[in-house]
Amino acid sequence: MKAVILAAGKGERLEPITHTRPKPFIPVLNKPLIVDIIEEIRKYVDDVVVVISPQHKDYFMKNLNNVSFVCQKEGKGTGAALKTVSSVIKEDFLLIYGDIFLGNKSIISELLREKNAILGVEVKNPKDYGVLVTNNGNLSKIIEKPDNPPSNIINGGIYKLEPDIFTFLDKISNSERGELELTDAITLMAKEKDVRVIRYRDFWLDIGKPWNLLDVNKWVLDNLSSSSNYGKVEDGVKIKGKVIIERDVEIKSGTYIEGPVYIGKGSIIGPNSYIRPYTVLVENNKVGNAVEIKESILMEGTKVPHLSYVGDSILSEDVNFGAGTLIANLRFDENEVKVNIKGRKIGSGRKKLGAIVGGHVRTGINVTILPGIKIGAYARIYPGAVVNRDVGYGEFFKP
């Protein structure tokens, strides 16, 4: 059996993180999301085919091994993406969206027992998704983002399908969004064949917005089975709770770490640093003197060397903060933090949310960044600036 992973999306809602990496390579602790998916489905399938966009081809081929790639050169939408593999799929197959995180992956084995099946996930906000209408456990139709959802069971983005799906894809046309929607073809299939809905009640997340990355990593940290320490910890370091310390990590005296926390290989912490719960240091990070990090993700090679506070934030790879750079994570009126997503202010559902910083950003000394701000990749922030608006890709921001 083959598995197909749809990973050709631009990831615009995750910008600026996706300015420098495809969406499926966002990290869950130290592991890219797509690697987490592939490692699980290898238990069930012989071959993995990944549908990618031409612009990300080099990145995927460099960072992903032992899979086949197919480029989606034309068309938009999940249906168009799946059609690109029609020539290589000749038997039943597993289909997964590349931005899905499953807490309990054993559910996949249940889908594989059926001829045609879809994962049905129970959520509190069904109107934000494709809602499943069922009849005796079989799918009747999928309604995209309805104002009045008929149920709280939504499309979980994982399918077991027969090759017949390509026949149904040929029968549909583009949606109002100008995209060929796989869900339209699934609905059409459900009129002629049984499509079983496999109910799932465990942790599931479609990582579509930046703060979802914080949510996923928080869940994984909450579910750590135990601590481990392969690094060098000096005298005078206090470690409390579950903490993973990988190889070649150095933690200097005076540092206080409150788990759950993940510290990736090659990182240097301290002296006198404060690492608070739900912090993820992916790898080769520097957190220096009098720096406090709280519920944040620092991606590969990012450095916060001295006198800084980073709270509820995401710093992409190779970011360097000048001394005294501070991120505010709470609005002065203590209302929900909103973030610009594709030109619209979207509520994050969070009272506390800091900054989302793209790769290779540099800040000068004494910079202040306000809640919910996005800073594009390769931007430069002038010393003393108060960043009170989003900063574009490569922009030089002056006070």
Give structural notes.
It catalyses: N-acetyl-alpha-D-glucosamine 1-phosphate + UTP + H(+) = UDP-N-acetyl-alpha-D-glucosamine + diphosphate; alpha-D-glucosamine 1-phosphate + acetyl-CoA = N-acetyl-alpha-D-glucosamine 1-phosphate + CoA + H(+). InterPro entries: Bifunctiontional_GlmU_arc-type, GlmU-like, GMPPB_C, NTP_transferase_dom, Nucleotide-diphossugar_trans, Sugar-1P_NT/AT, Trimer_LpxA-like_sf. It comes from Stygiolobus caldivivus. Keywords: Acyltransferase, Multifunctional enzyme, Nucleotidyltransferase, Transferase. In the N-terminal section; belongs to the N-acetylglucosamine-1-phosphate uridyltransferase family. In the C-terminal section; belongs to the transferase hexapeptide repeat family. The protein has seven helices and 39 strands. With 399 residues, it is α/β, with parallel strands linked by helices. It folds into two domains: 207 residues, Spore Coat Polysaccharide Biosynthesis Protein SpsA, Chain A, CATH 3.90.550.10; 182 residues, 3 Solenoid (UDP N-Acetylglucosamine Acyltransferase, domain 1), CATH 2.160.10. Strand 4, helix 2 and strand 5 form a beta-alpha-beta unit. The longest helix is centred in the middle third of the chain and has 13 residues. The chain is globular, with a radius of gyration of 22 Å. It is 14% helix and 33% strand. The mean pLDDT is 95. The protein has an eight-stranded parallel β-sheet. Strands 5-4-1-6-11-8-12 form a seven-stranded mixed β-sheet.
